[in-house]
Fold each of these.
Amino acid sequence: MTAFEVNGRKVDLEVDPRESLLAVLQDRLHLYGTKKGCDHGQCGACTVHLDGRRVVSCLTLASQVEGREVRTIEGVAGEDGTLHPLQRAFIDNDAMQCGYCTPGQIMSGLACIAEGHTGDDDEIREYMSGNLCRCGAYVGIVAAIRQVAGPAEA
Amino acid sequence: MRSFTYTAPTSVADAVAAIASAGPQARFFAGGTTLFDLMKLGVERPSALVDVSRLGELEVIDTSGDDHLVFGASARMADVAADPVVLRDYPVLAESLWRAASQQLRNMATVAGNLLQRTRCPYFRDELYPCNKRRPGSGCAARDGIDRGSAVLGTGDACSAAFAGDWPVALLALDAVVDVVGPRGERTVTLADLHVEPGDTPDREHSLAPDELIVRIRVPVTPAGRGSTYLKIRDRESYAFALASAAVAVTLTGGGVVEECRIALGGVATRPWRAYAAERAVTGRPLSAETARAAGEAALAGARPGNLNAFKIELGERTVAEALRIAVERAGR
């Protein structure tokens, strides 16, 4: 059995060694907010936090998360449904069109802010480059992260 | 995907014992960013994975020593890139890390696993095509195919796939070594001896035995670190593999003459590529546009282009020249 926490909830599952964390989140735990894009670590749609750090869940073996804490997009809003400021900022700044990449963008954006990689907009672009948006909402995504991170450094 | 067993030993000794008992098709597994990816494609088919990504003893980063910077094998690329001494005194190392992959992948990938990253040649990654690296003797689909990304240095008749990494190129320029543990004990391998050219056996990419585990990387402390850069040229500004890259580190005399110079190339060669002739072309002289260009030409002198990648020769030359300019400017501060 593999025991770990997802959004503060303890889970204990029999996993196939071949299963990715992404597959377990979707197929076993029915948490469909985390999206499968390329399934090869190239698009960032499946980004989650593992012990507080952003990773791509498609290239994380489920077996590797034994004893660790996973946070997905379902764990971002308040328990009463109040949106996180970054979720609100994505709406305010039209930071999406189709929305498929958005959970990954938000998980990556939260980490980008926490890491302090928001000194200027070029730094945000560099540290968000692992999250592709085929609708091309990049300008809004950078603006949303800027809104939450505060003004650029002089 | 072929089924496999998964074990997560808690010490280096247990990991080495586990790989020995798991048989010849067992593999060490760390960040998973290359190996799990290739397993999904059927390119890698291990029978057993021995997970070394959570061995605390291998996660140490120690940049305080007088002789070497020490990076534990399982230290993450993102953590080494953020080390204050690396950022301040070794921009070539920091840039080679933060200009690679994405922050998600750098949070996963280990600094030792990254040394053994496999090529991104599209034919290697696709079972539909012949590939001498993936299936020895099957042929090379890139030869008559889309070889725009292929190497121009260190190529052979069997394979011209480019080495994809950045950090190993920077380490090669700084004369790093790796310490390796296996059933026969511990040994040290220089970066220069770690990777091999494809020759007739492109499936063999390095000089380690399957049961040997890299436990740490050591980089000799050098003042050339401050006058250094890793310049990476690619199709887009971020999150792409190098078409051409140059790791350059220099020291200057008081009069602005290049005293010591190290140059290594990425993106253009089948392995991390040290350009000794280019180093000699600038050592003992002040850097000018002419000497920088001459160094670039010396670095690519032996290049053999394929069908669509001849552009990498001039691109490589110019990348070396520009990296020299940046490194000398930093050394002069």
Amino acid sequence: MSIEYLGLDSINGPLVVIEGVQDAAYDEIVEFSVHRTEQKLGRIIEVYEDKAIIQVFEDTTNMSLENTHTKLTGHSMELPLAPEMLGRTFDGIGRPIDGLGELNYVSKRDINGDPLNPVRREFPRNFIQTGLSAIDALTTLIRGQKLPIFSGNGLPHDKLAAQIVRQANLGKENNEDFGIVFAAMGVKHDVADFFRRTFEESGVIDHVTMFLNLADDPVVERLITPKVALTAAEFLAYDLGKHILVILTDMTSYCEALREVSSSKQEIPSRKGYPGYLYSDLASMYERAGIVDGKPGSVTQIPILTMPNDDITHPIPDLTGYITEGQIVLDRTLAGKSVYPPINILPSLSRLMKGGIGEKYTREDHQAVADQLFASYSKVNDARSLASVIGEDELSDTDKRYLSFGEKMENGFIGQELDENRTILETLNLAWDMLHILPREELNRIDTKLLDKYFDEDR
Amino acid sequence: MKQLGTIYGINGPIVYVKGRTLFQMSEKVFVGKEKLIGEVITLDNERTTIQVYEETSGMKPGEPVYSTGSPVSVTLGPGILNNIFDGIERPLKTIAELSGEYIHRGADVKLLDTEKKWPVHVTVEVGQEVIGGTIIAEVPETKTILHKSMIPPDIEGRIVEIVEDGEYTITEPIVKVQKLDESIIEIKLAQEWPIRNPRPTKSRFESSIPLVTGQRVVDSLFPIAKGGTAAIPGGFGTGKTMMQHQIAKYSDADIIIYIGCGERGNEMTEVLEDFSELIDPKSGNSLMERTSLIANTSNMPVAAREASIYTGTTLAEYYRDMGYDVAIMADSTSRWAEALRELSGRLEEMPAEEGFPAYLASRIATFYERAGLMQNFNDTEGSVSIIGAVSPQGGDFSEPVTQNTKRFVRCFWGLDKALAHERHYPAVNWLDSYSEYIGDLAAWYRDNVSPDFVDNRRRIVEILHQESSLMDVVKLIGSDVLPDDQKLTIEIGRVIRLGFLQQNAFHSEDTSVPLKKQGKMMEIILYLRKRCKSLISHGMPMSLLQREDIFTKIIAIKYDVPNNKLEMFDQYKNDIDEFYTKIMEKNA
């Protein structure tokens, strides 16, 4: 079965071509042995009669047309799975790197996964309290959701993700089983260390599985990292019934790796050199969040991506926004004003919010308050730009109130301390404090009944 | 099914067969040992190219390719409604029973249930002459929809045998027809039709009846006709899907075909859950009873995404042939265009704009041209309306899919990011959007809603345009310096935006609004404007008017006046009159 082929026919970047192979399958994993000393893995990405084009996961340095032995494994990329994965650390393609030895696996699964049948999905409705007002009130995170953080270089997205992990009520208090799967694609060593420290400090490290492909690890390997991480997450969630939070950082590095491989395959690029299938490729990962009808676990995803040049219309954030169920957008101006977390609430959105809030889950006024905060905050910018033209003194009384509302929102509502954990009721009451800055007739998104109940004219 | 070739090469969803083969263009084939479904897309002396509708991983060169002799088709018959299919009409519920929560490839399932027995009432008699389209039997398919089985389009002849009324499956013969060439053919409840060919009709005519959606910005400002086409372009988060859901729920079409093309799995689950619970006001049954869902979510194979649009359209045309008004929601046509691009890229075709193939425009055109109000061969009238969402890259409407779509649709509901950020939904931008149907529908509105409807609509649009240019000034110098009549335009513009255009999908009264109420709302806003204008011409300053709560009151009409209590509008008219006299008396 396992014939070894000696030699290659071409090497071009991460791609090698081998001719004269028998029985090679599309998407099959192959093992290379360079000089009989160095082992590498690769994947067949195109196959013709007796010729296979293989993408090598590691660097192709040292490989020559003569010194490489190639062996077909007869299967596509698989990840060994075991309940003991929680608490372990793996490299970008799922090999243990924590010195605790090989995993005693109970099953092996294809990392590409199969699409979940929409008729077997359960629509996510369970609110996760993160303790961050901007998220809980305005872009509510729901269990089983995929909610990315759109950030930029130098913005505190890691701190934000870490705070969510620390404070999110994933199931700890309800004694439900929970876990965290952390996948790093091309991030710096100190970022990976920061997350590890955070997990240790908050005492959840035994519940964390880490897959690390760091900035100096092979680029092509990162194409596998999110897939192995999600395969592990699905196993933990649907086979073992845990609530899993998956953090994928940084998706931009992943997309760049995809572009690199695509261009060495000489494919026709679409926008900014990214391949036309970037959307389908991202979707095949993001869509692996969810809840399966009748099973106890769930997979919630928080992908982090840095927008090149802070441009939200760049293909990576753009296509991501079309697939994910909302987004949390970080903003450099707010960060410049020392607002933490610098969440720009206007472009931020949670699509699943409407199903998981309100009387049954949070409080009756939640939706109306959120709508009103969005509507009012969108007027703050108009007032600000007017003030910069005609001067603050010349503004009408209402516009002045909007200025002060904007200021308070940014410092007292959106902004909070790194360890400040607000309950949803605290957050909603705080929201009403903000709305009290404005005159009642400006609050046209809130039902008269709710206004009568929560708005006190005399304050 | 015979083997006509072996696989030579595999590149993602594209599979090559070497040499000159006997396959036909667009033929459905089974590829590999697992018999995955594929379609022949090019043929030449050297090789045959096949696109495969399922994941090809693990497939090897040398595996067989089998011919079926017929193009990729769907099965048409009872069982389509109240169901959910993948892009090539495989029922997802059946697949779930076979393979659990994941969709494994190579699932060998019948497109429609062949075991279920349907109560059949035969409507033809022995000896009757029939042509393609003649209705031969009626089947209560769901509580809402009576399914009418027809002679397939290409058959003509005389009935020689019929069955008794009773219960039959879709594979049992219902009538036998002696064709013109004397041969006898059995007609069953189900028939096959190739998805890429439009079903034939007798003639097409101009529509003068609107597809009423219950959404004010659509029905009153930018209406679509039954048999019309509309595009909803918008960046992510602007509410395309929400708008499609609202129209699917509340429009007065008989049947909805909802195509989830490359979108989120949870959205399809949501439609399935919501529509099963929501009651269709017209029939009193659940909305699913008139709905069929085609789901090719973004993680399902891309070739089937390309097909899903045609599958949905073919199902819609079939119900149109029975004389129903069908509306297609295609969410999103951009994903379909991207599937074309992806396949085109794998075929190494020469790209045109932004990597899209040069035939993008003609494909979009043929899709939207399948809409229309038609006279069928059985002399019924039916329509297919197409409402397609477009997801422009970066929210930029100048990209190829939006631009090419704009050429072939007559209604354009452009969604606006700024409005969405304010949570103004539906975020239809009233300055960019248009409908070419207004002229065609004017007479209908005049006769069925109110004589002033079209005039009032025009005035409302004018005020919005004036308001927008005034707002440009206000942004620079503030509103205080404007003369009072311009301040009034801004205030009335605000009333229209908040009280009329903005509509709350989660409010039980506001989620869908009948045309009569829409007309009354426009009337009352214009009446308020008329009275205010008169006050201002009497020298009353705007600040005085704004001190009254009449504006807030008119804005709240959408919540405060129930859809079935339109007589309450008289009270509002009185309120405006009282407001007028109060100001006049106090300040004269």
Amino acid sequence: MSLAMRAVAAQSHAISERRRLSPSAWLVAAACVAVMAIMAAPLVFSFLASIKSTAEASASPPDYLPHTFSLENYARVFDHQAGLASYVGNSLLVALMAIAACIGLAAPAGYGLARFTTRGKEIAFLLLLAPMMIPYQALLTPLYLDFAKVGLVNSHIGLAIVHTILQLPFSIYLMRNSFEAIPREIEEAAMIDGCSAWRRLTQIFMPLAVPALVTVALFAFIMSWNEFLGALILMNEESAFTVPILLVSVRTGDHGAINWGSLQASVVISVIPCLVVYLALQRYYISGLLSGGVK
Amino acid sequence: MRKTGVPQEAAQMRGRRWNELQGWLFMGPALLFVVVFVLFPLGQLIYTSLTDRSLLGGGRFVGIENYLRIWRDSSFWRALQFTMIYTLVLTPILMGLGYALALLTVENTPLKRLTRTIAFLPVIIGISSSSLLWYWLLDEQVGLFNKLLVDLHVIKEPIVWFVTADLAFWAVVISITWKVVGFGMVLFVSGIQAINPEIIEAAIMDGAGYWRRVRVMLLPLTRRILLLTTLVSAIGSMLAFDQFYIMTSGAPRGQTFTAVYWIYQNSFVSFKLGYGSALSVVLTLIILVFAALQIALTVRSEAS
């Protein structure tokens, strides 16, 4: 009885609280909606322009909404130069190699840093973080010359190496921290069972650190999919272009005049994988950003 | 445990050495990668900067001649100055708006979470995608941004953004603000959420109004993350290239070349690799100052 009364009292209190707050709460809600509208609008209008007919997409002055539905812009991007499939394939292959390299290098290194009493390991750690301090833009000239000598220009491996340089320090930092958070007792039990260090890493530590591995892979994918300057310098043959380079080449067009509909279709194509991956794995992305993005 | 006396000590010694060696073995591949693909090229960069190497050949040792040329290269200084102005204008905008968005969306209600998610979306798309998206939005013929401003009677005629250096500069600032404002927002939200709620409740009890609480409590208590985010953001702006390459191509008359763009121009358009390398070394030194500050701050924030 008294419990129910208290509940009712609490409820009416909450209601009056909400009523009391409502003018400013409404203002805050309106501000949130305005922010969402401003931030989403460019992406939404880009998509709407991409499904206009080519003529409508180049109309001046433009209309906000399409009057017709057409996929001709996509069809043109699909057949652009070496073909969309080739560019997407290049981007995916480079991203997968960068992900594999980041995990393959950062997981053992993070384990070595987290669990072995190696003398001088903090110096090694600083050395591994060095790429963070040296802008990769400066390294691209010597890397281009070296890669030209060994056939890594216009090669997926060459670009994947550049993307690994960019993402490795963050990956190692993250793997070290997440391995350090795993209780020592688990490892000690495995050691008594005679489990070798390599097996402890692959069968105990890595399965326990799946969230960190997902974060490493996610950051590597988004960076690699979007990276521009390295691809611009290293991939100078049409057949080797990645998606960001495709975008610039679509703008240049075949005959000089910009095809605005195709340009927005290619922007949409380039954005979708990022949006899908991010929305599916948002939790990992934000936690990665907070734990290592700034540090 | 299995052995006794002296052999046990020897076994322990061996165990410790094996432990030490294993640590190096696990770090080895990553260390090798960094040495081969970062430190070695860095050495090559410094060496190349002392030669007259071009993409077509050459490579005569010329000492510090390239560096003396940088001293006289007014185009480089103009590009560096442009980059610094860009950084000094953009960074406060990004931090201020990012903080305002964080204050707006800091509570974990569904509406505010959704607002954060959408405001963060542009951060994860490519800078080439966002630059081309805004290149279209800002176009004077077909751009919806111009149309919107005309429809709202903010302007009478569409603005031709990429015809003067000033307008082109602001066009890039607008597009980049949209692109990365969510980055600061997310970090500031986490900073504000980490503040002990009791402190804020006590301030409310004492009758401190909202803006006073922001000024006297939230801002000082999130000082460190503000500083770190400012540095990360400033380093990014100092290395700007993609957005200018795509939106302005350095035009008009090379007035929107950034430092990295000028290096790219020298190394890969004019093929002056020796000179481009010297420029890269100078830029690296400038960035190192920022990075050292960032690391010093990180170490301090971990210590406290």
